[in-house]
Amino acid sequence: MHSYRKSLLVASVLLVGGSVTWTATSAYHLRSDAYRRDVQQDLTRFFELPCDLGGVRGRTFSSRTFEDVVIWLPDRRDRVFSCEAAIWQENEANGVESNELDLVSGMLAIRSDKWVKGDYRHVLESGLGHDFEDLKLVRVGMEAFEVSFERGDFLLICRDTSGAIDLNDPKVGVARLHAYELNGRRIDQGVQIHARFKPEGGVQVSELVLTVPKVPLESMGIGPLLGGKIQYGEFAGSLQYIDHAETPEVWLKGELADVELAEVTQSMAWGPLSGRFSVSVDAARVSGEVVTHFRGKGRIDNLELAPFTRLFGRGDLAGAASIHLDAVDLALGHIERLRLSGNVSGISLEDWLRPWGRGSATGRLSIRNNNLDIVDDNIKSCDIEVVVLPPPGQPGTIDRALLLSAAEEALNFSWPSALPQNLLPEKVEYVEFGMRLLVRDNKMRILGTHGASGDTILTIRVGGMSFGVIKEESDSLDLEPYLVALRRKAESYDRDRVREWWQSRTGSGR
Asked: In 3-state terms, what secondary structure has residue 250?
């Protein structure tokens, strides 16, 4: 018969673990209230936390069942752990002892809002810092458990959870669990939970990975990390939580579908953005309530331009874009790689030109991006077509002052001598208006789209005759100063979050 002066680990799952010391005497004494109280006192002394034990029941010569085990925070403010049954089993094979523990129908709380910082440290440094090797414990099984994990704004509540924890390596524990409810949402296919933790000197979760089938994005618990509630979108893939000393981080990988940009960009310096997107995410990092890195590809529909035009100091400008993202690799304030195509529509030419302050024009502006490729914050290549269409059923007009200043200042074009400027009316009718922008390595050429030679940008009508008044030039425009100004503008947004990262990219740290 075994001597039962052994340790019972009642809550070693993930973060919370420890041992209960007990001694078996006779079978009748195991069920006595006096023995239950003795073991309950052992629990309380071991954890230095209030503990309750409903009863002790013998199973075999080498196993015992502890019933209705509960461990509380100080002053019984909140439960750390509870289970209906904790079954301790001792084994021996070839002279080698090993022990197993099965936990049935319970809950495990890993830091909740009711815990204060001192509680968390106390729990880790008291009963949880014991060496699993001394217990000869090689496996902890779980059945029908609720496991809640909270760290900062990140919250996961997994119910109907079963699985096992491998403790063969006393220095590293590995939990492999399967849950069928995630943050209140039933998941018929189940959620896989993989966690690694270190039991020495207190138990610390170093990594937590959830692998999920297609589920509503709101069930992933990342809303608070992004600054608000998530109501739309679906996700299938993995969520990896990594615990750092200062700021934990969450990495996403998988497929996101029908996500509202406004919900996931609330904390961004340029946000919130409006639109909907579906993407394949190779990696997305959330830290400090900010999406700091994103790599993937996908599509964005109905992306409103106003937040971006505000970035340029243009105020709210009507218009929306649809974008195909062929390659995206972004970090906070920095573009590693961005390759996309798409179109922009719904822009009023009058609103677009108003900041120029030289007059107005009528019509609608549409932009088709055949290709934009940005590498390391520089435009490697770009091919954009810009077309202005007159208002429906009306001729398009442009103020004379605006036309002349745009031709001479913006496009660096000399007015043709065949059409004296004094013959122009105050409002000039345009027949065709379009250009093509080609960029190579931050150098842009502005090309025409019509005319006999295909090199005309603007054709106007005066006195019933058409004149091609603005044509393409052979010179290139250097975009580098504008890109530098844009980087500085981006840096000025939300300085507490952007400045440190940006300096690391542009200063000596880069």
From this structure: strand
Is residue 400 one of the residues assigned to a domain? no
* List of E strands, 152-271: 154-166, 173-182, 185-198, 204-216, 234-242, 249-260
Angular region, 210: left φ>0, alpha ψ -120 to 50, beta rest:
beta
Say which amino acid occupies 325: L
Nearest to 225 by CA among 185, 280, 265, 271: 265
Please indicate, yes or no, if residue 76 is contained in any of the structural domains. Answer: yes
Cα(286)–Cα(65) distance, rounded to whole angstroms?
43
Buried b (16+ CB within 10 A) or exposed e, 31-62: eeeebbebbbebbbebbebbbbbebbebeeee
Q: Which domain holds residue 41?
A: 1-200
Whether residue 205 lies inside any domain: the answer is no
CA dist 426 and 449 (Å) reads: 26
* Count of structural domains within the chain: 1
**CA-CA distances (angstroms) from residue 468 to 265, 269, 284, 433?**
45, 43, 50, 10
| Cis ω before 248 (30° cut-off from 0) | no
- Reading the block at residue 229, the tokens are 């509630």
CB < 8 Å & 24+ apart, contacts of 398-401: 398/359, 398/360, 398/361, 398/362, 398/427, 398/428, 398/430, 398/460, 399/358, 399/359, 399/360, 399/361, 399/426, 399/427, 399/428, 400/359, 400/424, 400/425, 400/426, 400/427, 400/428, 401/358, 401/359
Structural contact between residues 141 and 102, judged by C-beta atoms closer than 8 angstroms: yes
Q: How far apart are CA 425 and CA 394, in angstroms?
A: 17
Give, in order, the Cα–Cα distances in Å from 291 to each of 240, 271, 355, 383, 494.
14, 11, 32, 29, 13
Q: Is 111 left (phi over 0), alpha (psi -120 to 50) or beta?
A: left
Q: Specify the higher pLDDT residue, 202 or 295.
A: 295
Count how many residues are written for the chain.
Answer: 510
**Three-state SS at 23:** coil
Distance CA 351, CA 133 (A): 72
> What one-character DSSP code corresponds to residue 57?
E
| Angle value at C-alpha 140, between 83 and 27, nearest 5 degrees | 65
Cα 386 from chain centroid (whole Å): 34
| pLDDT (tens digit per residue) in 417-463 | 767 777 789 999 999 999 999 999 999 999 999 998 999 999 999 88
Q: Where are the alpha helices (DSSP H) in 126-172?
A: 132-135
Q: State the amino acid at position 273 in one-letter form.
A: L
Q: What is the pLDDT of residues 457-485, one digit of tens each?
A: 999 998 888 888 888 888 888 988 888 87
